[in-house]
Design goal:
The chain is an alpha/beta fold. It has three domains: 163 residues, Cobalamin-binding domain (Rossmann fold), CATH 3.40.50; 169 residues, Aldolase class I (TIM Barrel), CATH 3.20.20; 269 residues, no CATH class. Helix content is 39%, strand content 12%. The chain is built from 26 helices and 18 strands. The protein is globular, with a radius of gyration of 25 Å.
Length: 631
Amino acid sequence: MNIMMVTTPIRPVPTSFPPMGSLSIVKYLRTQGLDVEFYNIDANRPTYEDAVQHIIDANPDVLGISSVVSTAYSYTKQLSLDVKAALPNTLIVVGGNLAASAEIILQRTGTDICVIGEGEKAFFDICKRAETTSVVADFADIHGATLLDEHGHMVEAGFAQSLPKSEVYNYDYADLEETSDMSVFFMDAFDENGVFPWFEKDTRAFEKHRKDKKVTIIPGSKGCVARCTFCHRWDKGIRYIPVDQVIERIKEVMEKYNVGFLGFGDENFGTDSRWLKEFCEKVKELDVLWHVGGMRVNCITPDEITMMKDAGCCSINYGMETGSPDILQVMEKKTKIEDNRNAMRWTVGAKIQTVVQLVLGMPGESTRTAVESAEFCKYALTLDKSQNPNDLSINYAQALPGTPLYEYARHLGLIGDDLDSEEEYLELISDKNASDATHNFTDAPRLVCFLWRPRIRLEVLGAYVKKFGLAHYHKVLAHDGNFFKQSRPISGYYNEPKLSMERGAENQEVKDDRLPGERTLVSDSIHSRRERLEADGDVIPSLWKLLKGRKFNMILICHPHLVYPFRNVMLPLYLLLSLTRGRFRDVGDVLKWAVLPRKKVTFQSLRRTVEKDMGGYVGTTDAMNPLRKGR
């Protein structure tokens, strides 16, 4: 039996997060006596033609395609169609979150089977069955397998059984070494620009014995205790990997790859306080510094933050998402704004680095709720003068299949409820992240909606400058991660304005000035002729130099005091700009919105809105219902 597992590209550049799901499946198959080749397309980035040819040359009996995000649809579709055309007898299996659109994948691509839920046991059962049959309908009884029967009807046998916590993310780095450039996953903690951004504000990072160390990402758990209405997941609940296993994995990367810095890629790190206490006690002995990618604001205390810092924690990110109590309800966060404020106050007070992360544009979002988010951000990013007010990442809500937000959009007709319309949407969001707003889920006109982000940015920068002074802000900006160096490590986790802090002033991306849905807003983009900025020490580029280079985003960052006074006239200015460019529909939408009475909004979980008020999951087959609901 010839089996191959491949990854698909996730971001424009290879992600530094190891493909742990694929690696775990590979190891699980091997422990069960099956051999499998792992081909890491995401990390290696071969040309598309070379990737297809590699698969054809291998001629696998079973090809597993790991599509961890729904934005991988276009690539997965083309890959499966081309492989199926060349190798019609190869059984093609797609897993990952993209499988939430199984009906479309099975009918419009070269895929034979989709795996829903955790993939280890389901993919193993499929491979074992493939030893005796190649008839797709013969796999219909396998838990986790979703397919079309002999009549072309979609069938599913329920989710695959989840692994026990001791087997979660059980992988071998040897599989990664054989197939990938390990420098993608084990990065130099120090380069010509200084230390990796997660650790740059902790003096411990600059101790002599850490200078040649590497940084990598590992997991401490899988899943989440929450069910946010914009977030898709197959995992039910959360499983914490036993502490001793995590410690052994840390020791392994320290010994084999000279790691001295870690990032925990968990969605929900440390919610189990007993696990967190044991982990901190044991990781402290290793003298490793670490960053937490995701914690819940209502599952942390000042004592725990102190304990984490003492054990080597330098940076914590939280899933705050909004500063509006009403939008917290819509998101089903099950937290309070006071929880957000406490987490920021305690974390900043402990001198631990953090970033405020928002999701704008959920149903019910309005100028009022956006202002509430701005007020929260002003509080959170002016707690201490050592903070950089640009440590703020603002995404727009993106509807992913398997979420209440996606079903809400289908009910409103923003996404059609037939296969053609749903596939059109999947192709639209392919290769896009949440910074590329594709739809407006609010009752406000899109021009109003997409001005909320620059307005929040301006309010935060204005508050910081007012509290600490322009000179101090420029000092923080000039020294924060060597901002004016040309080369900057990009984590891929953040959006504007934090994204600009990671890129650096000389490495800004070139964009045009079209509106979101076309591309982006003027105030959130850089009109650049790729002219380098020169900065000597703490010198901030002059307004004239930035105007000459058409670097308007950099004007907002470097000279916020000059832009801040215009925050209240942004909408009129953009209306005038829209008129001069013939965008009369945008102007008409805003004028109509301004005079018509506002719709009454019920601020409740979007899940309840879809299931109770909108009639549930309409226009779908019975087999798709579990997939549309998620876990």
